[in-house]
Each structure stands twice: as structure tokens, then as C-alpha cells.
């Protein structure tokens, strides 16, 4: 199958602290998932969908377009068809079930329509799985199978991280965010911790690069504010200094409730601390 990959070199980590602010976050027991749906952090229940999956044999876990170097144990990587990228953006998590077997996958790559229409046209929801993911569901000789697909939270205790794109400088900055429990809908930045401006997707919406197209002194005193697809927001403390190709731990992640308990207890917000 025709595939495209992007490579990146990651530098050592710098750890930061963050305050967490929840937008539409709910925390009642009514938010807990059950039945045929999975409950998100905003209480929304995701419905199951019918789709088709196949697999690719040239998979390399270190060479994926959406760059996820830290994958939780028991999870698999996959590519989403180009026509469903809006519904399953980078870092979307899903449960895929076939013949009473279920795996959990993270969208880490894009399966473009160009050159792959014989596969992407097979179903409204098409996923190209890593070979080991497909093998966990069915015999590889089957080639492709019809499955049920359901979007879920990415269950991780890791913090969100930001990897700076090489050749970033004080006038132009780009990078990737990863480890999000839910995909990002919006990324904002501030150089004074008060006034925020929106970052844009680099080269449209088909990759996981976010960029500041122009500015000055962009490699220092930078604060990120991240919003997930359900409207939940986290605001991180300022990064005092960024380096070309560096990776930074943002100190927090989006909250969600699952089966009656919170995955992680977060710090109080700065507003609560001042009381």
C-alpha cells in the first residue's frame, strides 16, 4: 500500500508545571460511560460505527506522520482515511471490534486517498492498521475485515508534550503536541501570559504540525493554551526557553471520567490557589 511518513528527531526533555482549567468539564456519575457508548470528558456518548480495516506491512513505529513516540502498553497505531480525518483527527483513540475481539488504537498516520482508493472506498469508515493490530483481530490472510469502531479517550497518565520542529527560530516556530487524551481542536500561545493568539495548522489540516507564522522572540517565555474537541482547556506555565528540535513536558493532560473514577487527580487552578 502506498504510504507517506514524516521523520523527526527528538531532543531531551524539559519539565514544566501547569495549571488546569476545565471548560465544559463535568464530574458527575452521569458522565460515566456504559452500555453501547463511551463517555467523553464532556459527558458526550460516542456511538459505534461500522467500518472496514486492513493493514500495512511497511509499518515503522518510529516513522509516522503524526508522531507518537510514547504509546501506552496494549495500544496499537493506525492510519485514518483522508475523508475521515476531520472526524478522527491526529491522536484520536478508538475501540475496534471484530468477532468479539477488541483492540484499542491511536490515530498516528494518514492514509491518503491518492493511490489507495481501492481500500478507502470500501467503507465510509476505513482504518489502515499496523500489521500487529490487524493480527490481534483476525488472520492476516483475510486481508480486510468489517468491524465496529467507537471513539474513546486515550487512557494515559502521561503529560502532554510539545516537540519543537527543527529549524524553528525566534521569528517562526512550529511543533507537535502528543499524548493528549482527546484530540486538539485549538492551540493558542501567549508571550506575556495574558494575551493569547491562535496557532495554525502547518500546510493545512492533514498533519499534526502547529505553527506561529511570524513574530519575534518566539523561543522564550512562551505559554500554551490547549483546547480539546470537547471544549476542555488547559493553560500551561510559561516555557522560559525553547530550543530547535527540543521536547517539553507540559505538565498536565485533559481530564476524563471512566467507570466511576477519575484517571488522574489534577492540581487546583491558580484561582483556587489564591483563595
Architecture overview:
Helices cover 5% and strands 37% of the residues. The protein has 3 helices and 22 strands. Strands 1-20-11-12-16-15 form a 6-stranded mixed β-sheet, with no helix packed on it. Strands 2, 13, 14, 17, 18 and 19 form a 6-stranded antiparallel β-sheet that branches. The chain is elongated, with a radius of gyration of 19 Å.
Series of H and E elements: EEEEEEEEHEHEEEEEEEEEEEEEH
| Spatial gap, N to C terminus | 58 Å
Mean pLDDT: 77
Order of strands in the sheet with most strands: 1-20-11-12-16-15
Number of helices: 3
Outline, from the CA principal axes? elongated
Unreliable segments (pLDDT under 50, ≥5 consecutive)? 2-39, 60-64, 259-275
| Amount of helix | under 10%
Portion in beta strands: 35-45%
Instruction: Find the structural class using helix and strand composition.
Output: mainly beta
Determine Rg (CA atoms, Å).
19 Å
Q: Summarize the biggest pleated sheet.
A: 6 strands, mixed
User: Based on DSSP secondary structure assignment, what is the total number of beta strands?
Assistant: 22
Amino acid at each position: 500500500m502506498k504510504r507517506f511518513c514524516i521523520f523527526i528527531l527528538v531532543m531531551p526533555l524539559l519539565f514544566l508545571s501547569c495549571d488546569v482549567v476545565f471548560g465544559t468539564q463535568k464530574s458527575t456519575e452521569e458522565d460515566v460511560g456504559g452500555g453501547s457508548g463511551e463517555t467523553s470528558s464532556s459527558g458526550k456518548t460516542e456511538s459505534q460505527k461500522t467500518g472496514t480495516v486492513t493493514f500495512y506491512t511497511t509499518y515503522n513505529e518510529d516513522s509516522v506522520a503524526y508522531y507518537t513516540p510514547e504509546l501506552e502498553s496494549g495500544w496499537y497505531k493506525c492510519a485514518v482515511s483522508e475523508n475521515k480525518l476531520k472526524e478522527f483527527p491526529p491522536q484520536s483513540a478508538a475501540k475496534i471490534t471484530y468477532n468479539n475481539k477488541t483492540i484499542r488504537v491511536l490515530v498516528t498516520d494518514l492514509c491518503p486517498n491518492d493511490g489507495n482508493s481501492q481500500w478507502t472506498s470500501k467503507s465510509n469508515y476505513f482504518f489502515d492498521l499496523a500489521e500487529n493490530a490487524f493480527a490481534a483481530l483476525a488472520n492476516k490472510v483475510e486481508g480486510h475485515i468489517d468491524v465496529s469502531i467507537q471513539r474513546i479517550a486515550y487512557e494515559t497518565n502521561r503529560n502532554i508534550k510539545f516537540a519543537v520542529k527543527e529549524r524553528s527560530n525566534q521569528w517562526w516556530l512550529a511543533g507537535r503536541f502528543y499524548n493528549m487524551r482527546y484530540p486538539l481542536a485549538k492551540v493558542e500561545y501567549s508571550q506575556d501570559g495574558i494575551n493569547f493568539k491562535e496557532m495554525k495548522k502547518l500546510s493545512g489540516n492533514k498533519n499534526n504540525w502547529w505553527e506561529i507564522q511570524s513574530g519575534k522572540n518566539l523561543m522564550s517565555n512562551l505559554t500554551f493554551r490547549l483546547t480539546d474537541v470537547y471544549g476542555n482547556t488547559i493553560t500551561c506555565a510559561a516555557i522560559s526557553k525553547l530550543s530547535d528540535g527540543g521536547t517539553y513536558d507540559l505538565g498536565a493532560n485533559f481530564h476524563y471520567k471512566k467507570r466511576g473514577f477519575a484517571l488522574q487527580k489534577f492540581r487546583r487552578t491558580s484561582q483556587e490557589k489564591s483563595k
